[in-house]
Amino acid sequence: MPTQCPLCQQDGGKIVWRNDLARVVLADEPDYPGFCRVILNRHAAEMTDLSVAERTELMNIVWAVESIQRSVLNPAKINLASLGNMVPHVHWHIIPRWRDDLHFPAPIWASANPDRQVYTPAAALLEQLQHQLEQLKP
């Protein structure tokens, strides 16, 4: 485990589900309710560091989180991102977006939109994430 990697040292958010390969965390982003991360449990910098089976399983988790967010939160769009420029540890951001959120239509890392509206998360999201992710088969 690299000593400088924050995702090797910390959970990266509130864990809502995990298996041997990865964990799903709810990010602490108050302006982006439902923002989740899927984080590989071991250190690897790139998706191609994983086996084909691991890549498939990881993406199935990402797609399951996206599907649950769409069903529960009904956002205008879902953004998926795997950057790793600041934290070179395989992880995916799954970000529900609304047309008048803080940055829409730009990425959440862009300059803020001053005409935004703050949303509150759907109470059922955490429960649905846990319940439906438990149904995934490795």
Automatic annotation (TrEMBL):
InterPro entries: AP-4-A_phosphorylase, HIT-like, HIT-like_sf, HIT_Hint. A motif (Histidine triad motif) lies at residues 89-93. Keywords: Methyltransferase, Transferase. PROSITE patterns: HIT_2. Pfam families: HIT. One of its GO terms (biological process) is methylation. It comes from Chitinibacter mangrovi. Gene3D superfamilies: HIT-like. This is HIT family protein. The keyword Hydrolase does not apply. Residues 3-104 form the HIT domain. Signal peptide: none annotated. Its EC number is 2.1.1.-. One of its GO terms (molecular function) is methyltransferase activity. The keyword Amino-acid biosynthesis does not apply.
